[in-house]
Design a protein that fits this description.
11 helices, 18% strand
Amino acid sequence: MWDADKKTDNVWLTIADLPKSLHASAIDSKEYVSDIAAKNMRIIPTGTLLVSFKLTLGRLAYAGTDLYSNEAIASLFDVDERKIQKRFLYWALSAFDWDKAAEGDQKIKGKTLNKAKLKRIPIPLPPPEEQRRIVAVLDEAFEGLERARAHAEANLENAQGFFLSALREVFRNDGKKWETSLPPDPVKAAANRASEEISRKGTQTGGRAATLRPIMGPYSLSVLDMSVLPRGGWKWTRLTDLARLESGHTPSRKHPEYWGGDVPWIGIKDARDHHGKIIETTLENTNELGISNSSARVLPPETVCLSRTASVGYVTVMGCAMATSQDFVNWVCGDGLSPEFLKFLLLAQGDEIKRFASGSVHQTIYYPEVKAFNICHPPIKVQREICTSLECIAQESAELADSFEAKLRDLIDLRQSILQRAFAGELT
């Protein structure tokens, strides 16, 4: 049925392909159907008004080309423009309360309407002249709103990217910022080496040894390969020489007595919700019984956690003693490495963290690569100065993002207000 190589022009449309913005046509599909399959489907002509009425309700667009769609999209064919203008119908459906229409019907699962209920949607029908006037007013108003929305979204994206840009400026391999002439303290270095030796012996991961396959990352993180010369005062060090590597585990779900208690247990959802932040509470807790009957370990506050499976790249720091699932690698930092510095270094990787992963279906960072991680870092005093600077930038970036998100919410509220006024006869 599917034509993955696009040997035909038979566009197949799903709800995900319908644009979220106004004044848009639906042609940006990534799927096509074969000529054989298309013979048994009804083609939707260019210009047809489309509306989603299952799961995602009320998303509207015009067909930008001849296409085919699934059953979650209604195609409003043959609109009699002597009675109702197509553009007026578009705005009337935009003003409709779709969520309310899906409430109170036991036959409806989730946010879904059946075709019978879709056909009963009440549409106001003023005279043609009034329809044209309302359409003209709404088109002009929403054209301005759309420009404002696009501008706010661009500003939001820039605000969110501002912090990542600052991170990468600090950690990029060829960077010169934060160079230092501070010499290493030989006494402290010797003490650290002794502490690091104990740390290595305490590593709780087991499994295969560190890989011998080098991988160079662009932001102060590598597997083995340290061919990039560090900036002044920085050096490359095996991460397990600076922090104790720990794994995680999930107590058996077959034993409910292992769950519920006073030991916070970090899962992927927790890391996603606390990405780049300190985590104090988790969605699930285990207990001493669950810990003692599994390979899970209670790790100390300030342990740095990196998700390594399924959703690779979430970084969080424990705010109290916690355990994690097997989806994480965890580092308990020694005296020579600031947990906040390691957090920022891992955050700087962004999608580049996946270069250390492998897998044809699900990307996973395996322990042989983790055990061979090397980081480029300055002395601990400079690490702390870097963290203070980045915390300030992170706060500024978050405040900017919050302000633009508030503007987007205001634009949505204004849009609904204008639509409600239009179909309550209050437009002048």
